[in-house]
């Protein structure tokens, strides 16, 4: 596979639901859908919306969701409300982990917007309408078949990949959220048609899965790739492992499409994650994946320092478009959040990198060894 440096793609489309930022997990909850609206506002202030197709996502139906999720879980989600949950606490326990996944007002509509964008985005790639698609409201990688997990209720990614598999023999799932992409990995753990690759903080960290030794089972053996990392990884060392692993994955697996989860909790200064990536370092991963010239679907995910989430997803939109934008932030609806510098930048900090060169080289060697089993 030859990598391309220049803008190769004919068309980019983004799914924007104006109302997605109105949903609220609760005042004390660190997941803030409002950050998606903030990102869209920066995107518009740079005029990037004029350079791509901006589409309102259709809502996913219950039937769409049950292509992965169980009927009784979806029926429950459709009915649940803060009041009902209080009346039937034991019924709740089956489906929603307390604290992480509250039964907030409008939870089902929120899910149908997020999943609707990801399903329709996959269809757009399938039909050749766009080479690159973005849904910053998607990326909820922990949701399981019959239960919610880690702020995720509906696994929009699994639904999108199932759609991509209708047209593509092989699909790569790539996850740069600081957490392990467990829900997606589990859904495709036994198949050789989806190679799932997650880079994540590992060791006493949610959800606890994603050991390098977990490589898939049955036909799916060696089609799951896990890159466990320690705290404080910086741009240079992350790029070193990322490029080595992803070049190897793309060359051995030769996917027809790539779905990339761009969780921004891997940025420096995140409220939950403990990596030390700058905005430019995070976006370099997106730019690197674009350079393969394979249809690319980017979705959102985690990210808990919301001003930095909005900055990074807006900047990544410009990278996907191949547009240079100035670092001074144009005036936008949420301008006050970006002071005192008002810059499109998330710098790294001086935190210690707990990943040694030797450990990272070992990881690359082990993964190389796993990928040698993948048939060409
Ligand atoms: O650690 C846990 C649970 C609680 N224990 C029983 C285990 N939950 C984490 C969940 C993190 C979810 C990340 C989602 C994503 O990958 C994708 C959208 O980014 C958790 C944490 C934490 N520090 O790991 N929940 C919370 N913090 C939390 C904080 C405030 C309010 C509610 C939950
Ligand atoms: Ca990850
Ligand atoms: Zn995360």
What does this structure look like?
Helix 10 (279-290) packs parallel to helix 11. The protein is globular. The protein has 376 residues and is α/β, with parallel strands linked by helices. The chain has helices at 34-45, 62-65, 71-79, 82-87, 89-93, 107-126, 156-164, 182-187, 235-253, 279-290, 306-321, 357-371, and strands at residues 12-15, 53-55, 132-135, 171-175, 194-201, 224-229, 257-261, 296-299. Strands 2-1-3-8-7-4-5-6 form an eight-stranded parallel β-sheet, with helices on both faces. 35% of the residues lie in helices and 10% in strands. Zinc ion binds at residues 177-179, 263, 265, 301-302.
Tell me the layout of helices and strands:
Blueprint: E1 12-15, H1 34-45, E2 53-55, H2 62-65, H3 71-79, H4 82-87, H5 89-93, H6 107-126, E3 132-135, H7 156-164, E4 171-175, H8 182-187, E5 194-201, E6 224-229, H9 235-253, E7 257-261, H10 279-290, E8 296-299, H11 306-321, H12 357-371
Helix pairs in contact: 1-11, 6-7, 9-10, 9-12, 10-11
The site of calcium ion (CA) has 9 residues, from β5.
Radius of gyration: 19 Å
Structural class: alpha/beta
Q: Which small-molecule species are bound to the chains here?
A: ligand V1P, calcium ion, zinc ion
Element order: H for helix, E for strand: EHEHHHHHEHEHEEHEHEHH
Strand order of the largest sheet: 2-1-3-8-7-4-5-6
Largest sheet: 8 strands, parallel
Shape descriptor reads globular
Number of strands: 8
Uncertain segments of ≥5 residues (pLDDT<50)?
A: 1-10
What distance separates the N and C termini?
Answer: 13 Å
Helix content: 25-40%
Count of alpha and pi helical runs: 12
Strand content: 5-15%
Mean pLDDT: 96
């Amino acid at each position: 596979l030859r990598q391309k440096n220049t803008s190769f793609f004919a068309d980019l489309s983004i799914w924007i639901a104006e109302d997605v930022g109105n949903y609220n997990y609760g005042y004390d909850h660190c997941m803030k859908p409002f950050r998606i609206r903030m990102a869209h506002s920066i995107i518009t202030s740079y005029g990037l919306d004029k350079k791509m197709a901006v589409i309102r996502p259709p809502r996913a139906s219950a039937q769409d969701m049950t292509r992965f999720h169980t009927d009784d879980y979806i029926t429950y989600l459709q009915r649940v409300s803060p009041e009902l949950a209080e009346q039937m606490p034991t019924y709740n326990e089956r489906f929603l982990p307390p604290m992480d996944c509250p039964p907030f007002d409008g939870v089902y509509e929120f899910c149908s917007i997020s999943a609707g964008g990801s399903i329709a985005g996959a269809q757009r790639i399938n039909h050749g309408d766009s080479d690159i698609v973005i849904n910053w409201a998607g990326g909820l990688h922990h949701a399981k078949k019959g239960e919610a997990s880690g702020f995720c209720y509906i696994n929009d990614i699994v639904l999108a990949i199932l759609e991509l598999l209708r047209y593509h023999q092989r699909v790569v799932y790539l996850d740069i959220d600081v957490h392990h992409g467990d829900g997606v990995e589990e859904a495709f753990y036994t198949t050789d048609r989806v190679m799932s690759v997650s880079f994540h903080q590992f060791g006493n960290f949610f959800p606890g899965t994603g050991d390098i030794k977990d490589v898939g089972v049955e036909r799916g053996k060696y089609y799951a790739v896990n890159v466990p990392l320690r705290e404080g990884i910086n741009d240079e060392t992350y790029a070193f492992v990322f490029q080595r692993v992803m070049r190897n994955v793309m060359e051995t697996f030769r996917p027809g499409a790539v779905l990339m989860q761009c969780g921004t909790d891997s940025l420096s200064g995140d409220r939950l994650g403990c990596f030390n990536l700058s905005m430019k370092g995070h976006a370099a991963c997106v730019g690197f994946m674009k350079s393969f010239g394979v249809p690319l679907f980017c979705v959102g995910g985690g990210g808990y320092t919301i001003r930095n989430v909005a900055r990074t997803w807006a900047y990544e939109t410009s990278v996907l478009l191949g547009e240079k934008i100035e670092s001074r932030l144009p005036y936008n609806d949420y301008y006050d959040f970006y002071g005192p510098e008002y810059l499109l930048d998330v710098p790294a900090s001086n935190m210690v990198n707990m990943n040694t060169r030797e450990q990272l080289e070992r990881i690359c060697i082990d993964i190389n060894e796993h990928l040698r089993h993948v048939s060409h």
